[in-house]
Each structure stands twice: as structure tokens, then as C-alpha cells.
Amino acid sequence: MASRKDNRPKSVTLGDQTFQRGAGGETHQTASGDIETLTTQVGTPVADDQNSLRGGQRGPTLVEDQHFREKIFHFDHERIPERVVHARGFGAHGYFETYESLADITRADIFQRPDEKTELFVRFSTVAGNKGSADVARDVRGFAVKFYTRQGNWDLVGNNIPVFFIQDAIKFPDLIHAAKAEPDSDFPQAQTAHDNFWDFISLTPESMNMALWIMSDRTIPRSFRFMEGFGVHTFRMINAEGKSSFVKFHWKPKQGLQSVAWNEAVKLNGADPDFHRRDLWTAIKSGDFPEWELGLQVFDEKFADEFEFDVLDPTKIIPEEQVPIRIVGRMVLDRCVDNFFAETEQVAFQTGNIVPGIDFTNDPLLQGRNFSYLDTQLSRLGSTNFNHLPVNAPRCPFHHFQQDGHMAFHNPKGRANYEPNSWGAEGGPRENPETGFASHPEELEGPKGRYRSETFADHYSQARQFYLSQTEVEQGHIGDAFIFELSKVEKLAIRERMVAHLLNVDADLAETVGKGLRLKTMPKAADAARPTVTGLKPSPKLSIIANGPQSFKGRKLGVLLSDGVDIGLVTALKAALDKEGAQIEFIAPQVGGVEASDGSWIEAQQKIDGGPSVLYDAVAILVSEAGAAELRKMPAARDYVADAFAHCKFIAFSAAAQPLMEKAGIGADLDDGCVALAKPADAKRFIETCRDLRFWEREKTLK
Ligand code: HDD
Predict the structure, then answer these.
(1) Least C-beta-crowded within 10 Å: which of 127, 172, 538, 635?
(2) Ranges of Basic and acidic residues compositional bias (predicted)?
(3) Which value, in Å, is the radius of gyration of the alpha carbons in the chain?
């Protein structure tokens, strides 16, 4: 039977571009020249990708349609299991550059030569949420780095918090089960504010230090670019003479530390669930490459013996004030992935991937992790050959006799696939005792048993130290976070149990939380295996606010505009931001933009409903009288102003903006964080003010 005639035009011209129609009417851009022919997986050219092969115009689809079957078959199997933890993540490529040789403490090849660059891949993540959950959940952030060194891949699989919830890996499944959605209802998603989580935590005193950290603003970072990273465990470094030093790894963001406010995080997750990934993507794509410096805390057995806590206990830090950080290099992220699945989803980190010159310690959490990361890749990536994938493959030469298995891209070449063998030069690789990996020959002895060392028993002292190291504003946020989370817990006994623990941390904090939950009576302090050491010195380095960057670089100003806006103010703001290295985004009643005072046109990036102030680090309201009158009728415009104020942001405004601000409820409360822009020269002063990032003093007046 003759096929139905397609009488639609073969091409369409829009502006200066011509599009050609395919068989089914789809268009291909031809401006760039030749277009490759669509093929099947095995390269057979495809003539029609719009219609399946049918027995007659209105008849059934035929099984012989290999192209159709291959396409649907492949689509049906596109998903692989998401990570059991850290499912939602975002990766980027970059490099590590050494500042100096560390030959004195390690023979690791990556640390031998100053100024040498080593390729790396990073994946940041949240822990509890599913792959499609929102970015600004209150959660720990994963900070995993794969260094492709000349002596093999080294994976530093850390977090943005330097301590962990548990001391022994055997508790990890319980912790994660409790933290993730409850098993019957499958909610809440990406939140620890529920009974199971706090039930587990309140029954696990070793998690108290981490509990304080996760209730701090560390778990609502402004973006991946503005957070620290930590290797958490104590590792070893071994130099060429075989001398071992203990080491803790730190990543310090050159952009500075910054977090958002909790109410802002809640709104951000609705306004842009991809806020963190978009931020990293946009920064890299625009050439503003984020950087972190790698710092080491190096110490010896003597320090370890004298330190108040066990250096093998992953629920403890070593304050920077006690062992200063030696900065040894920098990481620069300068390339986004080409394909999310191939790179970010399939990257397989393993704590077990270490290189000669680096070694493990007996931290029982680290030891358990070494099993888990290798094991999990099999169920996630489906084959023992996951290291054949480009993102996981080493960049240095590798030779081994492991062979076959699903999807093996390469196998040993030649006759020999075992050793020892007697095939001489054709017999393949051999081990090398001189250059090969050698474990530190630590003496081990003792009866077999299931132990928890007495030296791991102090669960409260460092939690207290962390709390006392925070600024007053940050302490307030910790109290608020506990009250918020525990208010979502339905069982009173669990709320009370947590307050009982807090009594061992800080009496004022416990009282604040008890009052905030409106407990009728305060519980007794929880029984402690070891009494809290109250004399530990605060560590100011643990505060985010006290260690701010004093720069607005890399941040974003949102400018709400209306028709008739003073072009001089807009131009001056833009110039001041460019100088600072910060971004600007225009928000208007309609995305098409506004006509400025001089008749020029300013295109907007957001319509007011899609550009709430939570998306910006600071805001400006530059409107004409008529514009303010129009905007004050719009709920989204009023929220824009009210939220910016409530989230302690710096606000610049033109005189005509006042009626809108009054309508948003802040007319009479203007404070030093609100800066009037009367003339273009004021723009510079405003951007300098923004270097404080937030006007936290306002918070007191909001309560
Ligand atoms: Fe883990 C993933 C970090 C304890 C078992 N972990 C994972 C990732 C990070 C961390 C950043 C995501 C890696 C990626 O982006 O692909 N995990 C940590 C830190 C821990 C920690 C800093 C404590 C100091 N983890 C931990 C324990 C266990 C695991 C105690 C099990 C005994 N972690 C896993 C895992 C995951 C994982 C199940 C899931 C996906 C993967 O490994 O590749 O094996």
C-alpha cells in the first residue's frame, strides 16, 4: 500500500536560522553544516525514527522492527540503582596542584614535586535524600575526591563535617535506616526531622558531637563552593624511610565559608531544588573556577598519646589551635561533566583506594568503610569491571591478571594470565617490592573480641567545645534547629531524651530547647559514661560566621526592577559587582524586561514569581514611583522584600521603593543592613557593605 504523502514544508526559516524537517516533522538545525545520520547501536543507518514498522496503515507493530525493539529495550533499562547513601550528588573535573614537596612525611608520588598538577574528579552530595531530592535539605554534604595519581587512584571520601555519628562501622546500616525515610510510609524525604532518626540518635550517645554539628548551619551550606571538606579519620603518611606520621585531611574553600538561614533553605527547596548543582555548574561554566586548599594536620604518636581523646575515634576532631593546619596544595574545579550519568552517576569512590605513602589507621569506622565501598559498586554498577569505566579508570599505566566478567573492556594480552609463570618477558607484569604498596608494619596483638575502647567513651566534651566555639548568632541557630527537628518528633519520650543529652553539653542550650519544645518538666541529665570535661578551650576556627571571607566575590545580587528605573543606579551597581567578581541578576514583573529612565531596555533573567529573594545573597530594589505602586500589589514582590529582610540580607533601595517596602512590612524597621541608593556613587559603598554577607544583627530584632 502506498504510504501517506507528507505535504508539510521540508524546511522552516526562523530569523537567520534554517531548520530541516525529518520524516516525522522534527527539525534539525543545518546552520552548522553536515548532520550525522542517525544509526542503530551497531551503526545501521535509520531512515525513519518517528514511526514504528506496521503491518498496514492502521495495523499492528511488527516484531522484526529491530530499531524499535533496540530503542525501547535500551530505554527500559536506563536506570541503575541509586547509591544507598549520598544518592543525590553533583560532580566536576579539575586538578590538584602541589605547593611544596612533602617528601619529609610521605612518599606518595602526588606530593613529591612542587607546582605539579594532578587530574581529579569531585562529587559533592547530600546523604539521606533520594537522587531526585532537593539540594538544600538539612544534611551532611559528601565531599569525595578522586585523584588520578601516577601511582594509582587515591580516593579521599570525606564530608563537610569533620566528625561522624558512630564509632564502629557495624552501626552504619542502623544509622542510615533511621535517617532515611521510614520504611512503612517512605517519608519524610531528605529530612532527619522525624521520630526514627532522633530515636536512634538519642539512644546513641556517641553521636552527640555530630548532633551538634548537624544542627549548626554547616548542614545548610550556601553552596558546595562555600563549604569545607574533611577526611574525618586519622590516616597515616609514610615517607621513603618508612617513617609513619598521623594525618588528618582538610579542604579549605578559597571562596570562604557561608551558609543560608533555615527558613531560607525551606523556601529555596521549593524555588530551586537544584540550587547547589546549578550554582556549581554556573560558576564553572562562567569561568569562576572554585578552589579549595588542601591542609594537613600532621602529628606523631607522642601527640596521639597525650591528646585528650583517641585519635582513632571518628567522633572527635583535633582542634586547629592544637595542631595547626599545614597548607600543601590547591584543588581547582575547572570543567563540568559532559554527561551526568557517565561521570557523576557512575563514578565509584572507595576509601580502600590509597597509594604508596598513604595508609589507614585502625579507626574502626574506616576499617569497615574499606569493605563497604568496594562491595556496593557491584550492586550499583552491575559488574566487577566498574574500574574499566573512563571516570574510574586510572590515568597511569596498569597491568594485572584480573579478567573477564560482565562488560570487560580489556583483558590481559598474550598467553600469560597468571603468575608466577616461566614466560619471561612475555609473561606479563610482576610485583615490585621496592615501589609497590606496603602497609605500615604496625605491631598488632591482643585477644580476639568485640570491643569498644574505653578511650572512646567521652561523648559530650567535644560537643560542648563545638557549641561554645560558635558566635551567639550561630548558637541561636543551633537551638532553633533542635527545636524545629524535635518538634517534628511525635513521641514525647524521644524529645525528652534528647534534651537529657543536651544537659550534658550546655545547660543554657538544654534549657532553650526544653522551653522551645514546651516541656512541662526538664528531664534529668542523661547518664554519661564519662563526665563532660568543661575546661576545653573554645576553637574559634569552628565558627562559620567568625571565619567569613570579607568579600562578595562569587556571590549573586538580585535586582528587582520596574519600568522607569534610574539607569545610572543600575549601571553603577553592575560596575561595582563586576569589580568585586560577583554576579547580578535582574528580576522584573515580566521576564521580557523593563524600559529604564533613559529609554534603554534592560532584559530580565527572572519574572518576579520565579526569582524570589532566596536565590540571592543580597538584593536591590530599584524601581520608579509608578513601578513601586504596581509591585506593591503583587504578593511575590512583597515576599521578595520581606524574605530578604527576614533572612538578614543586605538590601539596597532607591527612594521610590519605600512604598513597596512599607507594604512588605519593613517601612519603619530600616536598619544598617538597608542601604539607600540616592546616587550612583552609593553603589560601591553598598557592595562593600555586602562583604559581611549577612546583617546578622537584625536577627535579634526579628524575634
Ligand atoms: Fe560513606 C558513599 C562519606 C561512613 C558506606 N560515603 C559515601 C559518599 C561519601 C561518603 C562522600 C559518596 C561518594 C560518592 O560521591 O559517590 N561515609 C562518608 C564519610 C563517612 C562515611 C565521610 C564517615 C567518616 N560510609 C560510611 C560507613 C559506611 C559507608 C561507616 C559503611 C560501613 N558510603 C558507604 C557506601 C557508599 C557511601 C554504602 C554509597 C555509595 C558508595 O559508597 O559508593 O558504600
Answers:
(1) 635
(2) 440-449
(3) 29
63-68 average pLDDT score: 97
Q: What is the pLDDT of residue 170?
A: 98
Residue whose cell numbers read 538597608? 674
How far does the centroid of ligand 1 lie from the alpha carbon of residue 405, in Å? 25
Task: Judge if the upstream peptide bond of residue 420 is cis by omega within 30 degrees of 0.
Answer: yes
Q: DSSP letter string over 94-126?
A: EEEEESS--TTT---GGGSSTT-EEEEEEEEEE
Q: Is the CB of 91 under 6 A from ligand 1?
A: no
Report pLDDT for 9: 55
Residue 598 lies inside a defined structural domain of this protein: yes
**Is 159 designated active site?**
yes
Do 355 and 413 reside in the same domain of the chain? no
Dist CA 180 CA 164 (whole Å): 16
ipTM score of complex? 0.99
What's the order of all strands across the beta sheet hosting 556-561?
A: 606-607, 583-588, 556-561, 618-622, 651-653, 674-676
- Say whether both 135 and 259 belong to one domain: yes
Is residue 189 included in any domain, yes or no? no
Q: Is 410 a catalytic residue?
A: no
- pLDDT tens figures, 128-157: 999 999 999 999 999 999 999 999 999 999
Number of domains present in the structure of the chain: 3
**How far apart, in Å, do the first and last CA atoms of the chain sit?**
78
Q: Which of 84, 86, 122 to mutate to test the pocket of ligand 1 (most atoms within 8 A of CB)?
A: 86
Torsion 94-99-105-107 (CA) sign: positive
- The verdict on 426 and 569 lying in the same domain is no
Indicate the pLDDT class of residue 34, thresholds 50, 70 and 90: confident
**Cell 613529591 sits on residue:** 112
Judgement on whether residues 310 and 240 belong to the same structural domain of the protein: yes
ω into 635 cis (within 30 of 0): no
Quick one: pLDDT band at residue 25, thresholds 50, 70, 90? very low
Cβ of 476 closer than 6 Å to ligand 1, yes or no, is no
Band of the pLDDT at 24, cuts 50, 70, 90? very low
Confidence of residue 667 (pLDDT cuts 50, 70, 90): confident
**Pocket lining: 142 vs ligand 1, CB cutoff 6 Å:** yes
Residue among 83, 120, 160, 166 to mutate when testing ligand 1 (max atoms within 8 A of CB): 83
The verdict on the CB of residue 172 being under 6 Å from ligand 1 is yes
- The predicted model gives 556-562 an average pLDDT of 98
Q: Exactly one of 86, 233, 250, 276 is catalytic; which is it?
A: 86
For residues 202, 208, 210 and 212, what is the CA-based torsion angle, rounded to 10 degrees? 100
pLDDT of residue 703: 83
| C-beta of 373 in contact with ligand 1 (< 6 A) | yes
Structural domain harbouring 144: 66-163+218-388
Q: Of the candidates 595, 654, 668, which has an alpha carbon nearest to the alpha carbon of residue 619?
A: 654
